[in-house]
Amino acid sequence: MKRLISSVIILGLLAVAPGCNSKTTGIPALGAAESDNPTAITMNHYAARNFTNGMVTQTELDQILAAGARAPSASNRQPWHFTVVQSQNLTNQIIPNITDGNILIIISAFDGQTSDQVILDCALATQSIYLTAQALGLGSRIYTGPINTINQRFKTDLGLPSGYSAVTLVRVGRIPPGVDAVSAASSRKPLDSLVTYK
């Protein structure tokens, strides 16, 4: 079962990797050097902390959301709903002092369906959104800390569908030029400490 889940996650991540067929994904290919490495986006991503002012365009947003909608899910149920928060007033209430122009994409699911399976499905959609934003040259960061506050205080203000609760959210925005995974990413545990072969 663990191997199956790992395979599903890897397939989901590769669906938004550079070099994928843009005709089927709706996501433009990156530059030639990056597209030569099909793992570039999965190996070089990082959770942005420093954002700069500037709007996310509707074209960029459409591609990010399309990638989220294309994420794999158990029995192809696609249990998620995406709420795009562009109001500076609302984004500041969820993430204080958020940078102007940043948007939040809240991934929610129906309350009666938030099983482990549905949570995993929503996590795959979240990862697709997160990675696609970075493939487009934007910064992105996944948050779970504000989720309880969203569900307790902001469902109505955000217009979440009736009976739905937030599961995760992704912050997307412009980042300073020249920032990359080498200079901005946190250190990682050695691979050999995380893998067992039998």
Structure commentary:
This protein has 198 residues and is of the alpha+beta class. It has a single domain (2-176), classed as NADH Oxidase (3-Layer(aba) Sandwich). The protein is built from 9 helices and 4 strands; from the N terminus they run αααααβαβαβαβα. It has helices at residues 2-14, 22-25, 32-35, 40-44, 58-69, 88-94, 116-135, 147-158, 181-184, and strands at 80-85, 103-110, 139-143, 164-173. The model is unreliable at 1-34 (pLDDT under 50).
Q: What is the spatial order of strands in the main beta sheet?
A: 1-2-4-3
* Overall pLDDT confidence: 82
Q: Which structural category do the helix and sheet elements fall into?
A: alpha+beta
The share of residues in helices is 40-55%
Give the biggest beta sheet: 4 strands, antiparallel
SS element count, helices? 9
Describe the global form: globular
Report, as a whole number of angstroms, the end-to-end distance: 16 Å
Strand residue percentage: 5-15%
CATH topology title: NADH Oxidase
Radius of gyration: 17 Å
CATH H-tier superfamily: NADH Oxidase
Low-confidence stretches: 1-34
- Class, according to the CATH hierarchy? Alpha Beta
Corresponding CATH architecture: 3-Layer(aba) Sandwich
Order of helices and strands: HHHHHEHEHEHEH
The counted number of beta strands is 4
How many domains would you count in the coordinates?
Answer: 1
Helix/strand layout:
Blueprint: H1 2-14, H2 22-25, H3 32-35, H4 40-44, H5 58-69, E1 80-85, H6 88-94, E2 103-110, H7 116-135, E3 139-143, H8 147-158, E4 164-173, H9 181-184
Antiparallel strand pairs: 1-2, 2-4, 3-4
Helix pairs in contact: 5-7
